[in-house]
């Protein structure tokens, strides 16, 4: 295997990690922003008010998009394993 080939596999793996993490990160970001605006408007500075909605948003996102995430990572893993004999030559 050439160094360029190894780098391309690493790049694809990082892209896959970003694609899989982005929905959860965006959901928690949006919920965190809404909670922060709510806290600023009402002057409630309770720390648990910031964490609980983010955890719930992350869980709901994984529950809703978990099948899609599993399909993406399974397809990527299958592609890696199927192409191993071609790369060894």
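^ structure tokens above, recovered residues below v
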């Amino acid at each position: 295997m050439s160094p360029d080939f190894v780098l391309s596999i690493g790049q694809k793996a990082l892209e896959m990690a970003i694609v899989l993490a982005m929905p959860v990160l965006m959901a928690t970001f949006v919920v965190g922003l809404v909670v922060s605006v709510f806290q600023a408007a009402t002057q409630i500075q309770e720390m648990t008010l910031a964490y609980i909605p983010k955890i719930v948003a992350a869980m709901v996102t994984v529950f809703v998009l978990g099948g899609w995430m599993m399909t993406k990572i399974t397809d990527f893993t299958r592609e890696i394993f199927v192409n191993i004999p071609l790369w060894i030559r």
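The longest helix spans residues 48-88.
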